[in-house]
From TrEMBL:
Protein origin, superkingdom: Bacteria
Entry keyword annotation includes Transcription: no
Sequence ranges assigned to domain DUF4136 in this UniProt record: 31-191
Species assigned in the record: Alishewanella tabrizica
Signal peptide: 1-26
Transmembrane segments: none
Protein name: Lipoprotein
Keywords (A to Z) from UniProt: Lipoprotein, Signal
Amino acid sequence: MNKPFLSRMWRGVAVLSCALWLNACAFGPQVRSDLAPDTNLASYQTFGFMNELATDRQGYTSLVTQHLKAAVTAEMTARGYRYSEQEPQLLINFNSNVEQRADIRTTTSSTMPIYGYYHYRRGFYHPFAYHQQEVETIRYKVGTVNIDVVDAARQQLVWEGIAEGVLNQKAVEQPREAMANVVNRIFERYPVSRR
């Protein structure tokens, strides 16, 4: 085997392992949640949305806001809450963010040197060890969605759910479905079950 072949082979192995790692992360976001002490979310009956949602910019409702509102409304009504614009007991706010990240992978490979004069040793033994380092930078996008549930009367956060994960191409191309899926995954942690 020659040096360029081995170099390409190790580069291919490194890229494949990174792709598998990223693909594994893309199967589902990492979800976590937190509940305020002594809070019984089943005791509330109505919900609404904050007047100024964190996903809105420049004074208009963004598409992200519309997708999140639809998904959250479906989850809350499935749990027996009723949507109300007039003094809801729970107010919901959410935020989303997409950021570019990079991972640097270094692999060390042992390759056969070009022998020249020592060609007669090729295949039986090596005159010296030769190690080469391959450095690859993998760039990817990570999306984060936060959902806050606030007690409107006390103006206090009572529950929050957070999802973070690597964005795959499907999520970028179909944001409505991706948002609905993420909201569903977050609400799997919500203390009140679907009815």
